[in-house]
Every structure is written in C-alpha cells, then in structure tokens.
Amino acid sequence: MSRRQFVNDPERVVPEALEGLVLAHPGLLSLHPDPAYVTRAEPATGKVALVSGGGSGHEPLHTGFVGAGMLDAAVPGAVFASPTAWQVAAATTAVDAGRGVLQIVKNYTGDVLNFRIAAELAGDEGIAVEQVLVDDDLASERPGDEGPGRRGTAAVVVVEKLCGALAEQGAGLPELARFGRDLVRDARSMGLALAAGAHPGEHAPAWELADDEVELGVGIHGERGVGRRPFASADELTADLLDRLVAALGLRRGDRVLTVVNSLGATHGLELALVNRAVHRLLGGRGVEVARGLVGPYVTSLDMAGLSITLVRADDTRLALWDAPVRTPALTW
Amino acid sequence: MSRRQFVNDPERVVPEALEGLVLAHPGLLSLHPDPAYVTRAEPATGKVALVSGGGSGHEPLHTGFVGAGMLDAAVPGAVFASPTAWQVAAATTAVDAGRGVLQIVKNYTGDVLNFRIAAELAGDEGIAVEQVLVDDDLASERPGDEGPGRRGTAAVVVVEKLCGALAEQGAGLPELARFGRDLVRDARSMGLALAAGAHPGEHAPAWELADDEVELGVGIHGERGVGRRPFASADELTADLLDRLVAALGLRRGDRVLTVVNSLGATHGLELALVNRAVHRLLGGRGVEVARGLVGPYVTSLDMAGLSITLVRADDTRLALWDAPVRTPALTW
Questions:
Q1: Which residue among A153, A186, A219 closes a domain?
Q2: Contact B89, B75 (CB under 8 A)
Q3: B200 and B172 share a domain?
Q4: Cβ separation A23–B300 shorter than 8 A
Q5: Residue A116: which of A129, A127, A125 has the closest Cα?
Q6: Complex ipTM
Q7: Which of A56, B85, B120, B239 is the most buried (most CB within 10 A)?
Q8: Cα–Cα distance list, B266 to A254, A294, A303, B217, B290 (Å)
Q9: Tens of pLDDT, residue by residue, chain B (333 residues)
Q10: Which residues of chain B neighbour A6 with C-beta distances below 8 Å?
C-alpha cells in the first residue's frame, strides 16, 4: 500500500507550507521568507525573547508554538534537517528586545552546532544569548558519557510553554536558563510506532515492520527504535513505556507530573484518548498524580503511526506557569 | 502493510476513549457514562442549549466542540454508528435551561431518525426542540429529490461555531434554527483520499486504491468516493475540489468565504498547510476572499489519508459570530 502525500515539488514543501501556515493564522504569525523564520505578528517588548527551531516534518512543532506566552520566533529547517546558523542568527537578532534571547534547542548534532554558531553571531552584535538543551528521549540514553547523549523530543513543548510563561512574567535571561535546565533534568519521553512515516513525495514508508511487532523507542526523524516488542493492547503498550519513564525519573507515591500523550502523526484521537486513560489509571495506581496533560499531535514525525509519552515532574511553580495564558496556533488557553 | 491501531477491546473503544478524553479536559468536559453523552463541566444558564452528535471515529467531532461558545452536549454513537434516540433524548433533557434545545444533525438516515425520536421524547417532557440538518457534502448530491440527499460533513463545525456564538448572545430558538438553516444552504464540502482508514482492532484498511489513483468524493464513514482520478500535485487536487465547490455555491468575484481545510485522519500538518496555500491562491485568483479559515483535523474518518475542503459564504454577521470567544478542547480563541 502506498503512503502518498499531498505535495507539489518535494524540494519546495517547507517554504510552501510556511506560506500556508501563516495564511491560516494571520493574526498570530508573521513570516520572514529569506532566511526563513516565523515570528509573532505582534512582537513582544520588554521581555527576554524565546527562539526555537529544528527540522521540519514535526508540525505543529515549532512554528505552531509561536505566540503570546510561548515562543517569539521559530526557525524551520528542511524536513528532518537543522536550520542553518544564519537562519537562527537572523531570527535571534530580529526578536531581541534588549533583554536577551533564550534559545531552546533539541539535542541533535546539527541543531546544537548551528544554534551555537548563531549564538556567537548574535553575541558579536551585542545580544546576550543563553541556551536550554532539551534531551528527554529515554530510548537514546547510553551508559557513560559517550556519544551525543539523549535526543530531544516532545518535552520541548513543555519547556517552551513554561519558559514562555516565565519570560512573559519578566524573568531575566540567567533565571530563565536555570529554570529551563532544571526542567529538562526532570523530563523524560519515550515513543513507539506501529508503522513508519513517509517523506513528502516518497511513496513508501521509511521502514517496514512485521505485523506482530511494535518498534520501541523510535525517534522523531524516522530513526528505527532501539528494539522491537510484540504487538499488544493499548494498555499493555502504555504500561511498557510508563514503567521505563517512571523508573528513569524515580517517581514515587505522592509525586505530580505534567504529561504529553503525543501522536507521532497518523495516530487517531480515539487511540490517543485510550492511551491517556491508561496513563491516568497506571500512574494513579502508583500514587503519581497527573496534574496537567496534553493529548494530541504536538511533535510529529511526518505521518508515522505511533505515539510518545512524556512525563515531567511538576510542582506548584511549574503548574502555575503551565496554567498561564497562551495564544499560539497549536496551544491556546 | 498493516494499519494496526492502539486499542484494547474493540467493543470498548468508545467508552474508554470518552473516559480518556474527559480526563484530558477536566475543566471543560463532564462525562455522563450511561446513556453516554458529554456536557460542559460548567453548564450554561439562560440560553438555548445546543446538542449535536453522531457516530464516533470522527474525533475531535463532536465531543471536542463542547464548551463555552459552541455545544452544550455531544452524543457519541459507536464507531460510524448513530447514537440511540434514548442517548440523544437524555442529553437534550439534561442541558435544557428552559429556553429550548437546538439539535445540530448531520444528514444520515440513522442520525436523522434517532434525533427526531429524541426531539419527540423531549417534547413530551415540555422541552422545545428545533433541528438544523447539515447536508454539505457535494459528492453525495443527486439530481432531483430522490434518495437521502447530501451527507453532512465538515461544515457542521462552522454551524456549531456560529450557532453556538449566536446562542451565547441570547438568541431565541426560532431565530437560531432559521440562522442555522440559512447557513447550511450556503455551505458545501468535498473530500478525497489517498488511502482508506482502518476500524479500531482491524489490521487492514476499508478498501485499497491503485498507486496512481485518488478516491474522489469520499465520505467520512469509509464510504468509497463517487469516482477516481489520477494522482496529481497538491495544487491540482485542490483546484479539482475548489472548482466544484465554487460552482455549487455560485461564488463570484467579491464574495467572501469561511474555509475548513480538514484532515480526514492521517494527513500531516505540512500537507494541510500546502493545501491551505493553494486554497488562498486559487480563490484569490477568482477574486473570492478567504475571510477566515480553519486548517487541521476537525472531522476525521479514523486514520484515513485524505482531506476535505469546506466553503461557507461569509458576511459581517457570520464573521462576527466566528470571531466570538470559544473555549472547547478542539477550538479555543
């Protein structure tokens, strides 16, 4: 069976999609086409600016989280490819309002490199820049200090929301960076897939999977998982992910968490709701309270049939920041 | 390739998903489990109540549109099956606040029958009920008055939003019914698919399609389309749908429309954004203004890879109602 998509020129998918996105949200977003980045339609003043970005194909991430209470700019690369340092530097310079810029970066080699160069370029223009590196993907954890470390996945939405709210309250750049880094230490995610997604213009999924298998620990760039396990019920698959996440965070009875039950692309709302039910029941059974949660497509991997679960330790401060108003294409309350 | 889904007992998908949905939105939604319906967590007073519903598998429709500014209750049937008359009657009775109930019904035989019986049952209890029947699907239009008429699809979201806003302003039941019926006459939709979806628990899509074909005029219940056409670019496929919709509504230079670029399930945000760009360019080229628009998964057909486009004639009154505040799981501003 083919995995065809709605596409014109595969090489033009990202610029065309950016144009279509901003047309859908004229009151919220503004597009700078070259170098490409998206900012708020009404720039904020008097606060630290937040910039994020990364490869495209994960929509609504990151462009869908630009707006009051979250990001000031998002910088999209090609599908599954880092934006250039010049794109990031241009966005960083554009949104600085005199109080500096917090860059929220998912931990991938290209992103880390290009955001670092961009920070140096902006620094040369006298703009203070700090970074929060998001590395929540438990599946990519390796013993010791070897390799690039854990990948950044759906916890980035929680980091953008909470840091965004704190910036809106007037926090300074060092406080924001400290807050964000503490938050990342308390966040872990893990995903699994029932079928890979396909790149725009390609008619076959990135990889095939036997009918009785689940790909465990998939990344958001079409990477295969770290293993396979037998297909099972939504409750059993949810329990498999949760057991690992709870152990990694050392959660105990009485702890509270923010959760993200995230579609990786083609997973339907009915399925996500079933998994959210299981998350509440299984964590509740361990005495861990789901204090707040998102359920939906937030950090996708093209049209992958799969999902990820993110747990973030919550406290009163974090929950108040979570509840603060937000108005972006993908998150509004 | 399998189309497996996250599911426990296929017979329990809907009640389990309802539980998971309400857990995700505790401040917005309240679940009445038996007979099953969803209401606002904080019931409205002093206004006409709005009730909709229909088969499940179209999420976020209808449960995702319960809340201030839209529905007072949504009544979900089994996957692709009408809710029972008793479910609808119970919801209708529960949300009546003394000013009557407007039922918004998609035009399918089972829904029409069961909402009509429910209206009579509620009438027996002294509750005034009016209905707006939504029949926007151009693909199901037949010459003459034969058959069940056009099916109801994604225009129902616009009807629920605008009638919801008008009810919130204090409009009476007859005015709401008149407004809704006029609106439906000015709304048409049409969809197409690149691959069928699969029922929860089934491992194969409802039907197969050749790699070079597109199924044109698909319904939202896995019905095959009214024809096939060659696969083509996003721009060409969008133009094919738009040509038919513009002709059906008799749109002319200077007209304004509300649009819904709707994922039928597995279609990615990048693809929808491309199609939204084409909608703006193609309508703009005809002198028709896209005054407001939604782009996203609003009325899905399980995990179908496909989309629909809805056009609704707009005027100042309708646009003001569109812009009125709304707070539901799937639509908030």
A1: A186
A2: no
A3: no
A4: no
A5: A129
A6: 0.96
A7: A56
A8: 38, 19, 6, 17, 25
A9: 457 899 999 999 999 999 999 999 999 999 999 999 999 999 999 999 999 999 999 999 999 999 999 999 999 999 999 999 999 999 999 999 999 999 999 999 999 999 999 999 999 999 999 999 999 999 999 887 678 899 999 999 999 999 999 999 999 999 999 999 999 999 999 999 999 988 888 878 888 898 899 999 999 998 889 899 999 999 999 999 999 999 999 999 999 999 999 999 999 999 999 999 999 999 999 999 999 999 999 999 999 999 999 999 999 999 999 999 999 999 999
A10: 194, 234, 237, 267, 271-272, 274-275, 307
For residues A164 and A327, the answer to whether their CB atoms sit within 8 Å is no
Domain range enclosing A159: 10-186
d(CA A119, CA A140): 26
Q: Could you tell me the pTM of the whole model?
A: 0.97
Gap between the Cα atoms of A106 and B315, Å rounded: 44
In the structure encoding, which two tokens stand for residue A305, read together? Answer: 């049939």
Residues 267-296 of A with CB under 8 A from B: 267-278, 280, 290, 293-295
Closest-CA residue in chain A for B198? A268
Shortest alpha-carbon distance between residue B142 and chain A (Å)? 28
Q: Mind telling me the catalytic residues of A?
A: 58, 221
How far off is chain A from B194, nearest CA to CA, in Å?
Answer: 7
The CATH number of the domain where B271 resides is what?
Answer: 3.30.1180.20
Tell me, yes or no, if B301 comes closer than 8 A to chain A by beta carbon. no
Return the number of CB contacts < 8 Å for A and B: 206
When divided into structural domains, chain B yields a total of 2
Helix axes of A173-185 and A155-168: crossing angle, nearest 10 degrees: 150
